[in-house]
Design goal:
Length: 200
């Protein structure tokens, strides 16, 4: 997980640098945001968005979780998810559609999630630990409410596909690894957000 933390730190620095550069571009609306859903799962997250034209915007979000919870439960990961958005009315207000890509690393296990969805068996996370990386893409729909001159609230849901490659460990806290790498294709929710947004 040390490498995961280093890569996450580099991403946050890069995201901040991109935000600073985009803020200095004349004629652009820029926003920073945090996903309240991710905050609720103890994921440190930060997002930035800039308008490319009256209808199009570019957004990038990243999140990091490096904690080992009680009873050796792990939800450790870092993830990056850029998205291009098309706004139906005016920018950063009302309905929008998006297309996103994502990548990251994960180290998860000891989680009691007793359900399956489209071939993904989340119940395996109870007795095994999975460590690996992923990438994929998806589409989304969202809506933004203007709360004041500078504050917005934004809800978004996206679906898509993720290719994952990982090592499976035979217990949630040990290093007894199965001999071969495994591959899994996930199809389902790839983006879920309730963002608190500050617009400059």
């Amino acid at each position: 997980m040390k490498s995961i933390g280093c890569r996450a730190s580099r991403f946050i620095c890069l995201l901040f640098a991109c935000f600073v550069m985009s803020y200095n571009m004349m004629g652009q609306d820029v926003a920073v945001k945090t996903n309240l859903l991710s905050d609720g799962f103890l994921n440190i997250n930060l997002g930035a968005e800039m308008m490319l034209s009256s209808k199009w915007s570019l957004e990038a979000e990243g999140e990091f979780n490096g904690w080992t919870l009680s009873h050796e439960r792990r939800w450790k990961h870092w993830a990056v998810q850029p998205e291009i958005r098309y706004w139906l009315c005016r920018h950063m207000d009302g309905h929008f559609f998006g297309a996103h890509v994502h990548t990251g690393q994960f180290n998860m296990g000891g989680l009691d999630l007793d359900f399956s969805f489209l071939g993904t068996h989340f119940s395996n996370l109870k007795d095994y630990r999975y460590q690996g990386w992923f990438w994929g893409a998806g589409v989304s729909y969202g809506y933004a409410w203007m709360l004041s001159e500078h504050w917005n609230l934004e809800a978004e849901l996206g679906v898509g596909w993720s290719y994952t490659r990982f090592s499976k460990y035979r217990c949630k806290s040990c290093n007894k690894k199965d001999p071969s790498k495994s591959v899994h294709n996930y199809v389902g929710v790839t983006r879920a957000a309730i963002n608190l947004v500050y617009v400059f």
